[in-house]
Specification:
alpha+beta; Double Stranded RNA Binding Domain; 3 domains; DNA binding; DNA integration; DNA recombination; Integrase
């Protein structure tokens, strides 16, 4: 039997009568109780004798985390260290208070796995530490947490309290997986118990709105760097961070290819994969204009308020995005943000009948999963190139359609 996320989700917490232990691989297995309690166990040989150690419990410890813990423990065994011994325990150096646990989590996990770690750390420091930071992590009761969420809800709103719950859950689950805590009182709390769950607004543009969006970008009262960033986001359907962090060396004008390295790929650390996109002529013109703005700089989109050869700050596009939405709304169209361009592009590509695998590759999504991922490593580069050319022609046609309506020309000017 294969151990998958789907199997674990369906089995946890439910009556179970199957095999009490199921092997996963390389000594890792799960133990399932009749009541559906799932425990990760590692079996190994130490000094010629069989041994086993408990790693953690599902769902606090997911499959990937169990694999990582297995590999860490097996590395210890290879060095002659028994994972059950006191040699690997942190003892007095382990984080005891909530503040210390948060700091440890940020330093040893969040900074390495999440590019937004600073804002998340700021959230925890501002909304958790003042309330319970000095408490011993193992002594806090559920009622203490609930009271904290109530205070934060009154201070900053219901959605804020819900976001805080999910972030703090991650911290406590990390503490459990690393042996600092024995239980997470928050695992049974849901977002609606402490606040309000945000419902994502799914905006996509109609055909004429695509033309209006391009013209609005072109007339934004911001630096050309910002306009070029938004235009290319619209053309490529990329995440804005992929462009914001890009270097000029990532754009190959001989092969007409833009490569997003693993470090700039949102899913790169998990997939260990770069994104490769062809450069259509419409995008090439904009990219070359952008290079000319700061020809000696390393980064494609450098900071322009205080000029520096560093990527523009992740918060810099926020205000232009708001203004862009206001411009669209003022014209009677859908209020649009920069991320809505990805959804708009994907829906337009569907309408243009682009092959789904190609469209998903253009977005930078992983299209081959499971067994297929081990055998298929194809970037659909030429197929992408053909589709991007069609998409650019489509954008230009919609700009022309939009500008043919004389009511808007005087308000927005012409598109480039």
């Amino acid at each position: 039997m294969n151990i998958t996320d789907a199997f674990l989700r369906n089995a946890v917490g439910k009556p179970y009568s199957g095999a009490p232990q199921i092997a996963y691989g390389k000594g890792l297995s799960i133990r399932i109780s009749p009541k559906g309690k799932i425990t990760w166990v590692l079996r190994y040989n130490f000094n010629g004798a069989p041994a086993r150690v408990k790693l953690g419990e599902y769902p606090a410890m997911k499959i990937k985390e169990a694999q990582d813990q297995r590999d860490e423990y097996k590395a210890l065994v290879s060095k002659g260290i028994d994972p059950r011994s006191d040699h690997i325990k942190l003892g007095v150096n382990s984080p005891k208070t909530i503040s210390a646990l948060i700091e440890y989590y940020v330093e040893h996990s969040l900074m390495e796995t999440n590019k937004q770690w600073q804002s998340i750390n700021s959230l925890l420091q501002r909304s958790v530490v003042p309330h319970i930071g000095d408490y011993k992590a193992g002594d806090i009761e559920l009622s203490d947490y609930v009271r904290m969420f109530q205070i934060e809800r009154e201070r900053a709103g219901a959605k804020h309290a819900t976001r805080l719950l999910y972030r703090l859950k991650s911290v406590l689950n990390y503490g459990i997986r690393h042996g600092f805590l024995k239980q997470n009182h928050l695992n049974h709390l849901k977002g609606r118990d402490v606040g309000e769950i945000s419902k994502p607004v799914k905006r996509k543009l109609t055909e004429v709105e695509i033309g209006a969006m391009w013209v609005c970008i072109d007339t934004l009262p911001y630096h050309e760097t910002m306009k070029n960033l938004l235009k290319l986001t619209m053309i490529f359907g990329s995440r804005i961070s992929e462009l914001r962090l890009s270097e000029k060396s990532h754009f190959d004008f001989d092969k007409m290819v833009w490569t997003v390295p693993v470090i700039n790929n949102k899913m790169g650390s998990k997939l260990e994969a770069e994104i490769t996109r062809p450069i259509p002529k419409m995008a090439e013109s904009i990219i070359r204009q952008q290079i000319d703005i700061a020809p000696d700089f390393k980064y494609m989109f450098p900071r322009y308020y205080i000029v520096a050869d560093k990527p523009i700050d992740q918060k810099t596009p926020y205000r232009p995005s708001l203004v862009l939405g206001q411009m669209m709304s003022g014209l009677g169209y859908t209020e649009t943000r920069n991320h809505d361009m990805r959804r708009t592009a994907r829906n337009a590509w569907e309408q243009l009948r682009f092959p789904p695998y190609v469209s998903e590759t253009m977005l930078g999504h992983k299209v081959h999963k499971g067994v297929m991922a081990h055998y298929v490593d194809y970037d659909y580069l030429e197929e992408q190139r053909e589709c991007y050319d069609i998409w650019c022609e489509y954008i230009q046609k919609k700009v022309s359609d939009f500008l043919s309506n004389q009511r808007h020309i005087s308000q927005l000017g012409s598109a480039s």
